[in-house]
Design goal:
- By secondary structure, the chain is of the alpha/beta class.
- It has one domain.
- Helices cover 48% and strands 16% of the residues.
- It has seven helices and nine strands.
- It has a five-stranded mixed β-sheet. A two-stranded antiparallel sheet has the order 1-2. A two-stranded parallel sheet has the order 3-9.
- Strand 4 and strand 5 form a beta hairpin.
- The longest helix is centred in the C-terminal third of the chain and has 35 residues.
- Bound molecules: iron/sulfur cluster (SF4).
- The site of iron/sulfur cluster (SF4) has 12 residues, from helix 3.
Length: 277
């Protein structure tokens, strides 16, 4: 969203300035929340996890409980197939992407498992510094690769807050590749971060809102009047034989086209970046 060759429009500048001010407030509020409940490891606040918890629950008492009792937040056990599929997908897509970037003569950098303030990106792709004169901080793209059907929107929300670089979402199960840009989602992004700042402040100040309902299922706060009981999930989350066959079929069928589409999207974004210099 630019104003021809005159640079960013004043609306965009206002948005960036408003968003950056809110982000500073959010990081401060999350740090305060983590410090209040000692949600830290070796003195370092667990900001990504705190943001994840806040974005996952309507009931703020439950959110506060999991921040106060990190060991209580037990994730289900998944069939190792999911992890293996995720790793292989990233490697397959990146190997194709490297080939396509080289064919186009673009010098690039790629990082995997790249840490940001509010999460860990699957992949970060950027131009080699020599192609960006002067070097710019945001000359990068982020890729989030989903080999399975689920797509946690709280994670997408955190990544949109964390960085303004384009976020490329890759969904192999449905053959979908899409690009999200914070600047194209201005009303959504501002409302999201303002609500999150208010939520973090409420929790840090002990003014959390208790909301019984859907969140009570699997909540472990036994001291709450609405506690319904909790059962440890010992079984492994896995696919049945028919679903497994369907999953493998769609996986191998979709992966080549998804890898090519992802490469084309990345090439397009990097070319735009080079032209913008
Ligand atoms: S039992 Fe329900 S109301 Fe109570 S803390 Fe848990 S989710 Fe909230």
């Amino acid at each position: 969203m630019t104003n021809g060759d005159k640079g960013p429009s004043s609306d965009l500048k206002d948005f960036v300035s408003d968003f950056d001010a809110q982000k500073e407030k959010l990081i401060g509020a999350l740090k305060r929340l983590c410090a209040t409940y000692h949600y830290e490891v070796q003195g370092r606040s667990l900001l990504p996890s705190a943001a994840k918890i806040l974005l996952s629950y309507d009931c703020e008492r439950k959110a506060r409980f999991y921040i106060k009792n990190p060991g209580a937040n037990v994730e289900p056990h998944f069939d190792p197939y999911y992890g293996e599929k995720s790793r292989f997908t990233t490697t397959y897509i990146l190997d194709h992407l490297k080939r396509r970037l080289s064919e186009e003569g673009i010098e690039y950098t790629i990082t995997t498992e790249s840490r940001s303030e509010l999460g860990v990106y699957d992949v970060v792709v950027g131009l080699k510094p020599k192609d960006v004169v002067p070097p710019r901080k945001q000359a990068t793209l982020r890729l989030e690769v989903k080999a399975s059907e689920g797509i946690p929107l709280e994670q997408v929300a955190r990544y949109l807050i964390s960085d303004s670089a384009p976020l490329i979402l890759v969904r192999v199960a449905f053959g979908q590749v899409t690009v999200l840009r914070r600047e194209d989602l201005q009303p959504f992004s501002l409302m999201l971060i303002e609500s999150l700042v208010a939520k973090a402040n409420r929790l840090a100040e002990g003014k959390h809102v208790t909301i019984p309902g859907g969140d009570c299922f699997d909540c472990r706060d036994t001291t709450c009047d609405y506690f319904r009981g909790w059962r440890k999930r010992s079984d492994v989350v896995s696919l049945g034989a028919v679903e497994f066959q369907r999953d493998m079929d769609s996986f191998f069928e979709n992966l080549p086209s998804v890898a090519e589409t992802t490469s084309l999207v990345v090439l397009d974004e990097l070319r735009n970046e080079m032209e913008a210099q």
